[in-house]
Specification:
Length: 136
Amino acid sequence: MNCRPTASSFFNVITQVALACWIVGLLGCGSNGPSRIALSGKATRGGQPIRQGSITLTPNPGQKGVAANTSITNGVYRFTSEDGPSPGAYRAIIQEVVTKEEILKRPSVSGIPATQWELEVKVPESGSTSVDFAVD
């Protein structure tokens, strides 16, 4: 019994492996997930730019979409098309980072000045990709 592979059997194996890789490559060329939107704008508190903070967008209950988070610097935030939200209705959580001195200077409700706010926002499918957030 001869167990040595022949050139034709080796060629068949190589052909089958190449064909399998090509099929897997074609199947993998689809979308990598939900579409994301580049979104940017201003974030202000009492009409003044939020010096430092963050914005977190989470889809409203029952809504499809992806959560997104970015920083605020000198009143400006920016999501890219790689890390931004997908179109839809979101709950926005705006957080401001403040020093102890800044907190003590602010008027407070129940003794604790606000440094976090929740808003509703609609991320458009197309058109303007600028949304400003203004909190008190």
